[in-house]
Design goal:
7 helices; 214 residues; 58% helix; four-stranded parallel β-sheet; globular; three-stranded mixed β-sheet; alpha/beta
Length: 214
């Protein structure tokens, strides 16, 4: 099941997604999500500010992205998972800060760095959708999309490596389904065999969902 950014715009939209998934649990779904609405654009904007060395603008835009995800996550998570989610945000945004520092050092947003920056959109949305599903009593499990989609190194338009991806999916996803869990994975984002983050380019989340479904 694939959900795009407009389906994940805020807490009410995510709650509707939860209802749709709940009605199809008998089909053992794998849930694939895009970044939340406008997040990819916001991440590209903060990377552009980092390339220009505008630390004030970087801090402002980064703070806006974090506050948005934090508020939505808090709204959809179980009370007992909110503190854990805050810790997860600390980890993800620490990693984002490291990438933005690389952008600043380079003085430009190279294709490789652009992929690294925008990947956080799908990683954050899949964490949040997992939280929302669990609040509804659905045994959802976040899966890092970079662990299952293997690509070449054509940054911003990477091509999947199908045999490697199939093996990763079977190893990672099928056991969760067999145990009655609902995996939640971001689309669009993958990783090379050397462990470098990539993206599939335009409509990449739909492409990911087609690959995972097959």
């Amino acid at each position: 099941m694939k959900f795009g950014g407009s389906s994940l715009a805020a807490a009410p939209e995510i709650e509707r997604v939860v209802g749709i998934v709940h009605d199809r649990l008998d089909r053992r779904p794998l849930v694939v999500v895009s970044a939340m609405a406008r997040t990819t654009r916001s991440l590209l904007a903060v990377s552009d500010a980092a390339a220009k060395g505008d630390s004030g603008l970087v801090a402002s835009r980064r703070g806006t992205i974090r506050s948005f995800h934090e508020s939505v996550g808090a709204a959809v998570a179980r009370p007992d998972e909110r503190a854990q989610f805050s810790g997860l945000l600390d980890r993800w945004f620490s990693q984002l800060d490291a990438v933005l520092a690389q952008v600043g050092a380079a003085g430009e947003v190279t294709p490789r760095l652009a992929d690294a920056v925008v990947s956080f959109g799908e990683l954050l949305s899949s964490e949040i959708v997992s939280l929302a599903l669990r609040r509804a009593g659905i045994p959802a499990r976040f899966v890092d999309c970079r662990e299952v989609l293997v690509t070449d190194d054509s940054f911003t338009r990477a091509r999947p490596l199908y045999p490697e991806t199939k093996a990763r999916l079977r190893q990672t996803i099928l056991p969760k389904l067999d145990q009655g869990e609902i995996p939640v994975v971001g689309g669009y984002v993958g990783r090379t065999l050397d462990g470098i983050t990539t993206t599939l380019g335009f409509e990449g989340s739909d492409f990911s969902a087609a690959i995972f479904g097959a």
